[in-house]
Write a structure and sequence with these properties.
It is built from no helices and 11 strands.
């Protein structure tokens, strides 16, 4: 059974940093990319960052230059380093794994709260 387990969320002040981790257990065939999404109260879930199999990355404009996504293939883990956090980064952050057959796997989410 596939499980995505996020960790690393919490409450920080504006300007501080957090590092999110997502450990993937179980077998997923044909992984195309791994990424992070977030959903703030009253808003739709949005893409934050994605890293595809080749190692290429893509970021939402709102986090470029502040967030960095990385992957440890050996540990089947994806990370999101978040620096210079802003109150508008407050959301539940979800880990995602997408396959070439267009199947998506999601974690349970981890809360990130940034106070001003």
């Amino acid at each position: 059974q596939v499980q995505l387990v996020e960790s690393g969320g919490g409450l920080v002040q504006a300007g501080e940093s957090l590092r999110l981790s997502c450990a993937v257990s179980g077998s997923i065939f044909g992984i195309n990319g791994m990424g992070w999404y977030r959903q703030a109260p009253g808003k739709q879930r949005e893409l934050v960052a994605v890293i595809i199999l080749s190692g290429s990355t893509n970021y939402a404009d709102s986090v470029k230059g502040r967030f960095t996504i990385s992957r440890d293939s050996g540990k089947n883990t994806v990370y999101l380093q978040m620096n210079s956090l802003k109150p508008e980064d407050t959301a539940v952050y979800y880990c995602n794994v997408a396959t070439r057959s267009l199947r998506n796997y999601w974690g349970q989410g981890t809360q990130v709260t940034v106070s001003s």
